[in-house]
Automatic annotation (TrEMBL):
This is T9SS C-terminal target domain-containing protein. It comes from the Bacteria. InterPro entries: CHLI-like, Secre_tail. Residues 1-20 form the signal peptide. It holds the Pfam family Por_Secre_tail. GO terms for biological process: chlorophyll biosynthetic process. It comes from Chryseobacterium flavum. Gene3D superfamilies: 2.60.40.2700.
Length: 320
């Protein structure tokens, strides 16, 4: 009889323990769409966070920070005592969790983060055939007839449908029928074979209503013609007017290398952003040394290099 009593007591305690357990989790329509623990907003949207059914609820938020660990306090959200919580764009860069009670059980959910849709602003990469072009000004390039120039979106994974232009459109967003639109071209790259001022407008894949225009200052003017430097094509001779040289990797996220081994040392290196602002300057740079550009904002830049003989090279590069 005593054995049966002990067994029944243990069974009863086990049942009470099971009933007292609660493990809240948070769900929402876009949670995990790209990152498992984040809700990504588009421009102006609401998102509903939900948890399982319990006796009571209290939602909390914590401001995001770069610092690790995050020492910002968790703050109880006033009036947020329901099974669901609606958040919006003002709640971006916050963590959320919910504290629940069920009988004699109290528990908190794992935290999730509400983030804005982070994406790279439009940037365009231009690919030229060596010896067939000459950059005569920032964003203005003379190209030999019969050659071609390939333009690409630096962030093809982020953007979906593109609209390509052969001149700067009259409005942003462009209106249907704008004469600058290149009809029928919607991919993330375009190859130009005639004169024009090229750029694009594109919409993000995750947020199809969120679209961006390449800054008109970053459009590239191509002038196709039988230029004097084109006379050397097919002879294997370098163009005497060629003011460009090899820079790599391009695009780059951290280090940029410039080089002609014959120059060895460059008396001056300057990097200028697309607004004309000087963002970096170096003296006595060795051609095989990396230039750290990790601190630069992603986008297009001009690098101007002067060798020991005073010859100046101008190149564009893209900071990822």
């Amino acid at each position: 009889m005593k054995t049966k009593l002990i067994f029944l007591t243990c069974l009863l305690l086990g049942i009470l323990t099971i009933k007292a357990q609660c493990n809240p989790t948070i769900t929402s329509p876009r949670l995990g769409a790209i990152f498992p623990d984040k809700v990504l907003f588009c421009t102006t949207e609401n998102e509903v966070l939900s948890t399982q059914a319990y006796d009571s609820y209290q939602w909390y938020k914590q401001e995001w920070t770069w610092q690790t660990p995050n020492n910002n306090p968790w703050v109880a959200i006033s009036g947020a005592t329901s099974q669901q919580l609606t958040i919006n764009g003002n709640d971006q860069l916050y963590y959320f969790k919910v504290k629940v009670t069920q009988g004699d059980c109290t528990a908190e959910s794992p935290a999730i983060m509400a983030d804005g849709y982070v994406y790279g602003l439009p940037a365009m990469m231009s690919t030229y055939t060596p010896g067939t072009y000459e950059e005569i000004d920032m964003g203005v390039v003379n190209v030999c007839n019969g050659a071609s120039v390939k333009f690409e979106n630096v962030f093809p994974v982020v953007y979906g449908t593109h609209t390509w232009f052969k001149c700067v459109p009259g409005s942003n967003p462009p209106t249907a029928g704008d004469p600058c639109i290149i009809a029928g071209v919607t991919g993330d790259a375009y190859t130009a074979t005639e004169s024009g001022k090229y750029g694009f407008y594109a919409c993000t894949e995750y947020c199809p209503e969120q679209c961006e225009m390449l800054d008109p200052f970053s459009f590239v003017q191509l002038n196709f013609g039988n230029w004097q430097f084109c006379e050397n094509l097919g002879t294997g001779e370098a163009s005497p007017k060629d003011s460009n040289m090899s820079i790599y990797p391009n695009p780059t996220a951290q280090f940029l290398y410039i080089g002609k081994a014959s120059d060895k040392t460059y008396s001056e290196i300057t990097i200028i952003d697309m607004s004309g602002k000087l963002v970096l300057k170096k003296s006595d740079h060795q051609y095989n040394q990396g230039i750290d550009v990790s601190h630069l904002v992603p986008g297009n830049y001009m690098i101007v290099s002067k060798n020991k003989d005073g010859k100046v090279y101008k190149n564009k590069f893209i900071k990822k």
